[in-house]
Amino acid sequence: MIHPPISLETRKRLARTFGKQAAFDQPLAKYTSARIGGPADVVLTAPSAEKLAEMVLLVWEEELPYLLIGGGSNMLVSDQGVRGVVILNRARRVEFDLLTPSVTADSGSNFGAVARQAGRKGFTGMEWAAGIPGTVGGAVVGNAGAHGGDTAGNLILAEVLHHTKGRQSLTVQDLAYGYRTSILKTKSEFAVVLSATFSLSPGEPEVIRARMDELVEFRKRTQPLGASMGSMFKNPPGDYAGRLIEAAGLKGTRIGDAQISEMHANFFINHGAASGADVFGLISTARQKVEEKFGVRLELEIELVGEWDE
Ligand SMILES: Cc1cc2nc3c(=O)[nH]c(=O)nc-3n(C[C@H](O)[C@H](O)[C@H](O)COP(=O)(O)OP(=O)(O)OC[C@H]3O[C@@H](n4cnc5c(N)ncnc54)[C@H](O)[C@@H]3O)c2cc1C
User: Fold this and answer.
1) Do 84 and 101 have their domain in common?
2) For residues 216-223, average pLDDT
3) pLDDT in tens, 109-141
4) Does any ligand 1 atom lie closer than 6 A to the CB of residue 257?
5) Residue 188: its pLDDT value, please?
6) So what's the pLDDT on residue 189?
7) How far apart are CA 158 and CA 148, in angstroms?
8) Are residues 276 and 250 in the same domain?
9) pLDDT for 280-297, tens place per residue?
10) Is residue 228 part of a domain?
11) Which of 28, 31, 73 to mutate to test the pocket of ligand 1 (most atoms within 8 A of CB)?
12) Catalytic residue ranges
């Protein structure tokens, strides 16, 4: 859906309401892990869960088009950027309940950092998450997972602000989790995650740290460095997207400064000046070649933000 730019009147009102938390015509590249993306009309930075709720309620009330960005590590933003309001989630309060034991983190907290903090306090259960970039909110929405663990496996409750139902505590069942998806990702429900509580178990800090170091080392050995969005495509049932792209002879394929990694074909790297169009060109090539050769239609794991000719 194509939205018109935000009016001057609305810009002025947002500047008055949010002061320094509002910025205008900001390139989104600096807020994404791929370092790609054109400007947003308005960027509102939410420093707390309360402010996040206030900003979201305002855009809903005024029916402004909006996009929430956490770590920006699971999206490709178009070179034309985004018309409307981008809310940057920087709500980062983290609290441990030593009795349950569990951790409740604001949705803008770095997910991997929460896992590492839990480990330092002697709580096991989230080691798998140590190397995942992005926020708690992004993980809850996309059911982030790695090394046999996933968000659904640890989540106790997600505190969510719902468009019509207000604040709600949602369980794993409510969120209808699947492989890298939830009811929130499919946007069949209009809601924002404010915070989430994850279950933990008592453990030995040294053992937990050793396991996390091992998993991070494994990532370093198997995944390329450089600006990317992580896995571009979901693994099709019984196979791996990376294997199919490699078998289609596409490892190392380059358009402009964007390249299908030589190390792992499901990672697309921005070598510095790649545009969204360059990456999109690689996405289209990979899909087309894999479908021609193997009859498999690759499904994107990342989200395309802005306008695209899909
Ligand atoms: C190098 C690299 C390695 C990666 N490895 C993994 C991996 O091992 N496993 C894995 O699962 N993923 C991996 N990823 C992908 C990514 O890190 C995860 O999907 C992550 O959970 C996304 O979080 P984010 O905050 O960056 O989300 P964003 O990219 O900011 O947002 C993604 C979507 O979620 C929505 N969203 C974000 N926060 C909220 C919120 N609070 N409420 C409602 N909606 C929200 C956004 O609007 C958007 O639609 C990797 C990425 C990179 C770059």
Assistant:
1) no
2) 93
3) 999 999 999 999 999 999 999 999 999 999 999
4) no
5) 59
6) 61
7) 21
8) yes
9) 999 999 999 999 999 999
10) no
11) 73
12) 180, 231, 301
Is 1 among the domain residues? no
**What pLDDT was estimated at residue 4?**
79
- Work out whether strand 303-305 and strand 75-77 pair parallel, antiparallel, or are unpaired: parallel
End residue of a domain, out of 89, 122, 143: 89
> Is the same domain home to 218 and 100?
yes
Residues whose CB falls within 8 Å of the CB of residue 274, separated by 6 or more in sequence, listed in order: 34, 36, 256, 257, 258
CB 138 less than 6 A from any atom of ligand 1: yes
Residue 299 is part of which domain span? 241-305
Residue nearest atom 19 of ligand 1, based on CA coordinates: 74
pLDDT of residue 1: 60
Query: Residue 124's pLDDT is what?
Result: 97
Last residue of a domain, one of 89, 121, 146: 89
Domain count for the chain: 3
Given a cut of 70, whether residue 307 has pLDDT beyond it is yes
Inter-residue contact 243 to 222 (CB < 8 Å): no
pLDDT of residue 190: 82
List pLDDT tens digits, range 138-181: 999 999 999 999 999 999 999 999 999 999 999 999 999 998 99
Residues 98, 80 share a domain: no
pTM for the model: 0.96
- Does the Cβ of 144 fall within 6 Å of ligand 1? yes
Looking from the CA of residue 34, the nearest atom of ligand 1 is 53
